[in-house]
Write a structure and sequence with these properties.
The chain has 567 residues and is of the alpha+beta class. The chain has eleven helices and 20 strands. It has helices at 51-57, 88-107, 124-136, 147-158, 203-218, 220-223, 230-249, 273-297, 318-328, 341-360, 433-456, and strands at residues 4-9, 13-20, 23-26, 36-37, 39-42, 48-50, 65-67, 79-81, 84-86, 113-118, 142-146, 166-172, 177-184, 189-198, 255-262, 265-272, 307-311, 332-334, 478-480, 486-488. The longest helix has 25 residues, at 273-297. It is globular. The N and C termini lie far apart (84 Å).
């Protein structure tokens, strides 16, 4: 059974989900967790590794690792891994390819369709770079979807939301913040107004705040470190991981102790939840302001919103729900899978669009689902999902730097012999009956034309010798049928001769030239030169019952032409 894949390529973590047999499941990417770090490392031998393996090796080779490159999309400055430059979209392509191969290894084959998510506030330039990353990863059957839409689609698969209901999505991830307002329609969701966001706001900024707190606490011991020393760089990388773990622990605990293991200092730094919230509260205020701008762009007030959906790993911070609820005065719904909700919604969209393509036989290239009419819950929940027509897919005709033209759906060629992903073959269309009849007629005309060429030569008008019993007249002469109808002699068939085979119209009784003749034109035959076997004796031919012919007298000498038989 074919499956479909949704990918949430986050700034700090990457998640994936699959749809199979009407169910959506989280794909396990790591050996210890379902998500993997969005990390890429270039080894000395040139091999590129990603995820957990890259994270582990980064502790000993920090100069060869790249993190948070999603934030660098659109930045022409390359990232250097061990001195080798890489663009952000190239690193994204390598991570995407690894995710697809990892899932294919567990599922026993490649997915039949893929949906890749991106921030809602990305402009056309960044979305085009993402398309290039998908192209570099050799993912041909992929669609693009905004992260808030994917989150709303997954939320609708779990909760019954009536058509017309308005939901605000607050998506605080590892590196970016998105806010969007969506309305439930009869077939899916539509974005109201314009999505808002903060380009550089997320969990990595909160990690940095915790690390700055630790650095201030240790004082000069950190400033005295030699950052060119490899053991020092490895110790700093371990300290950073400890700060990330402390931030996550404060979601459930009120205070944590952060171990500091530097070459010249071994200690611990205590951090309380109140201290942490004081660090990040100003940044969270910017996210609330962005959400209010999204409401104003949709010409709505907080009272028009049914609920606010919190999405993203950083939305689990208790202060986030508190600020959103108090600022808007609306109920707050926390996604059961804050790290996987976007990927699970993307898997639902991948299934809808992929199944629609298989049924229609059309393969779109990197479309973007705008105002997704997908995800009412039937593919992963309890209510039916309306199919997304291919015409609802919006393909932006943007030409990436590598010259790849992205056509619209109506411009896509349909190859009836193409086998869509997933192994479902499309039956080739049979040629229409009129085409077959036309082909047979053309073949008959070709055969008749060949006979005319063989029989007519170069159009020599020299009279041929006729059998005394033959009623066929000379070309161009008029003859009379048994019924008295006058017609051209070329229309008279051999049906007037008993026992003969009808000749096609326009075919004379001339014979081709002898072998070796370069002209192939007919020659005049006489009784003395004609072979005795070419024509039967007059006595063997039954007498004809035709009336006397009206053909003009022949030009041959009387001595060589026997008189025609009487009536």
């Amino acid at each position: 059974m074919a499956y479909f894949l949704g990918i949430d390529l986050g700034t700090t973590f990457t998640a994936a989900a699959i749809w199979r047999d009407g169910r959506v499941m989280v794909a396990r990417l790591g050996s210890h967790a379902t998500v993997i770090p969005s990390v890429v490392l270039l080894r000395e031998d040139g091999q590129v590794i990603t995820g957990e393996a890259a994270e582990r090796r980064s502790l000993i080779e920090p100069q060869r690792v790249a993190r948070e490159f999603k934030r660098r999309i659109g930045d022409p400055t390359p990232l250097f891994l061990g001195g080798t430059p890489y663009s952000a979209e190239t690193l994204m392509a390598k991570l995407l390819r690894w995710v697809v191969d990892r899932v294919a290894e567990d599922e026993g084959g490649l997915p039949a369709g893929i949906t890749v998510c991106h921030p809602a506030n990305w402009g056309e330039y960044k979305k085009d770079l993402l398309r290039q990353a998908v192209h570099l990863a050799d993912l041909t059957d992929a669609t693009l979807l905004t992260e808030p839409e994917a989150a709303a689609i997954h939320y609708a698969s779990l909760e019954r939301i009536q058509p017309g209901a308005v939901v605000a999505v607050y998506d605080l991830g590892g590196g970016t913040f998105d806010a969007a307002v969506l309305r439930r329609t009869g077939v899916g969701w539509e974005i109201l107004g314009f999505p808002e966001g903060v380009e550089r706001l997320g969990g990595v900024d909160f990690d940095a705040a915790v690390q700055r707190h630790v650095i201030r606490s240790v004082g000069d011991a950190y400033d005295a470190l030699d950052t060119s020393d490899m053991p020092v760089l490895a110790a700093v990388a371990r300290l950073r991981q400890e700060c990330v773990s402390a931030k996550e622990a404060l979601t459930a605990d009120t205070d944590v102790s952060i171990p500091v293991m530097l070459p010249s200092l071994h200690t611990e730094v205590r951090l309380t939840r109140r201290e942490f919230e004081d660090m990040i509260k100003p940044a969270l205020g910017e996210s609330i302001a962005a959400l209010e701008r999204a409401l104003r762009s949709a010409a709505l007030t907080p009272d028009d919103v049914g609920s606010v959906l919190l999405v993203g790993g950083s939305s689990r911070i208790p202060l986030v729900a508190e600020l959103v609820g108090s600022s808007l005065g609306r109920p707050v719904a926390v996604d059961d899978h804050p790290k996987h909700g976007v990927a699970m919604g993307a898997a639902l969209v991948a299934a809808e669009t992929g199944l629609e393509r298989v049924s229609s036989g059309v393969h779109a290239v990197l479309p973007e689902v705008v105002g997704a009419a997908v995800g009412t819950g039937g593919l992963g929940g309890g209510t039916a999902v309306a199919a997304l027509p291919v015409s609802d897919l919006v393909l932006d005709p943007i030409t990436p730097a590598d010259g790849l033209l992205l056509p619209g759906v109506d411009d896509l060629p349909v190859d009836p012999t193409t086998t869509p992903s997933g192994g479902v073959a499309v039956e080739p269309q049979k040629p229409p009956l009129a085409l077959l009849i036309g082909g047979v007629a053309a073949l008959v005309l070709l055969v008749l034309g060949g006979l005319m060429i063989i029989g007519g030569g170069h159009g020599d008008d020299t009279p041929r010798h006729q059998s005394p019993a033959s009623p066929i007249t000379q070309p161009g002469a008029l003859g009379t049928t048994p019924g008295g109808e006058h017609r051209n002699a070329t229309d008279v068939t051999a049906s007037t001769v008993p026992g003969s085979v009808p000749l096609p119209a326009g075919v004379s009784t001339t014979t081709p030239g002898k072998p070796g003749d370069d002209s192939g034109s007919p020659t005049t035959a006489s009784p003395t030169t004609a072979p005795p076997t070419t024509e039967p004796p007059p006595t063997t031919e039954p007498p004809t019952t035709e009336p006397p012919t009206t053909e003009p007298p022949t030009t041959e000498p009387p001595t060589t032409q026997p008189p025609p038989p009487g009536p």
